[in-house]
């Protein structure tokens, strides 16, 4: 697989193309964004194991999202039975599940590596009676969070394009991880712009909510108002995955036509 090297402006173009895809079939992607939000919520009802299961299923969910976006880009209406069609092939399910388990292992190892150097400071937040000093714990957690964040950038680069490479191109997992890492490295500036743009968008939404609350509207009402906005923005985020993949590994992008 030959990955293209794109200019930094491509990061913002991926978001614009994602919005164009969303506008083609907004209800379909709104439905998918709602379903993924529901799955995330359900995962938190089962502490630890729910999050581990969600992480293991992430490549499958990513591949379903990419396949839906490819259908939308080619002009096919996304009917309800079509959502799970990419996973009907047994070999594809098996390979994506193996990728998900690898993703889970990488995240667990990353968490262990990020926590180990700060273990003494974390344990110092617990006194001899077993009581937790919340202020000390929050302070002690900063180091592990920052360290894991840096490690997760590398993990994300390994797995970012891997679901599409495995699901569509049928290449081995080791090759998919390598090609994904190379593609992300070649396009580190576009991905930096992509991440910064999304951070700015989500920050602007939160600031808008805080501003409305400052005007005297109750936080509960603001939350109700922002819920559909967050679902739509998440849907556009999911739609932007496809142009990010296709512009790196493809020739032309269907949503531009």
Give a quick precis of the structure.
The protein is mainly alpha-helical and 257 residues long. 76% of the residues lie in helices and 0% in strands.
How would you state the average pLDDT, rounded?
91
- Low-confidence segments, given as residue ranges, are 252-257
**What is the H/E order?**
HHHHHHHHHH
Q: SS-based structural class?
A: mainly alpha
Total domains, how many?
Answer: 1
Number of strands: 0
- Using only C-alpha atoms, the radius of gyration works out to 20 Å
Most strands sheet:
none
User: What overall geometry do the principal axes of the alpha carbons give?
Assistant: globular
Helicity level, as a percent range?
over 70%
Estimated share of beta-strand residues: under 5%
**Through-space gap between termini:** 25 Å
How would you characterize the overall build of this protein?
The longest helix is centred in the last third of the chain and has 31 residues, at 219-249. It is globular, with a radius of gyration of 20 Å. It has one domain (10-256). Helix 3 (49-73) crosses helix 4 and helix 3 crosses helix 10 (219-249). Helices cover 76% and strands 0% of the residues. It is mostly helical and 257 residues long. The protein contains 10 helices and no strands.
Q: How are the secondary structure elements laid out?
A:
Layout: H1 10-24, H2 26-43, H3 49-73, H4 90-115, H5 119-124, H6 134-159, H7 162-169, H8 173-186, H9 188-214, H10 219-249
Helix pairs in contact: 1-2, 1-9, 1-10, 2-3, 2-10, 3-4, 3-7, 3-10, 4-6, 4-7, 6-8, 7-8, 9-10
């Amino acid at each position: 697989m030959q990955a293209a090297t794109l200019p930094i402006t491509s990061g913002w173009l991926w978001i614009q193309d994602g919005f164009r895809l969303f506008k083609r079939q907004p209800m379909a992607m709104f439905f998918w964004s709602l379903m993924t939000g529901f799955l995330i919520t359900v995962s938190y009802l089962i502490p630890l194991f729910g999050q581990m299961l969600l992480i293991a299923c992430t490549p499958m969910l990513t591949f379903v999202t990419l396949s839906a976006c490819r259908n939308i880009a080619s002009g096919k209406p996304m009917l309800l039975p079509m959502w799970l069609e990419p996973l009907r092939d047994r070999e594809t399910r098996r390979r994506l599940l193996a990728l998900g388990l690898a993703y889970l292992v990488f995240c667990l190892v990353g968490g262990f590596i990020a926590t180990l150097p700060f273990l003494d400071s974390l344990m110092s937040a617990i006194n001899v009676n077993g009581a937790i000093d919340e202020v000390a714990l929050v302070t002690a957690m900063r180091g592990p969070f920052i360290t894991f964040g840096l490690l997760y950038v590398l993990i994300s680069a390994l797995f970012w394009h891997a679901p599409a490479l495995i699901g569509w191109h049928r290449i081995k997992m080791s090759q998919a991880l390598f090609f994904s890492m190379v593609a992300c490295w070649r396009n580190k500036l576009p991905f930096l712009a992509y991440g910064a743009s999304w951070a700015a968008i989500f920050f602007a939404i939160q600031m808008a909510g805080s501003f409305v609350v400052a005007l005297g509207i109750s936080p509960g009402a603001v939350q109700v108002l922002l819920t559909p906005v967050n679902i739509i923005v998440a849907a556009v985020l999911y739609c932007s995955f496809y142009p990010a993949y296709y512009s790196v590994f493809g020739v032309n992008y269907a949503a531009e036509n």
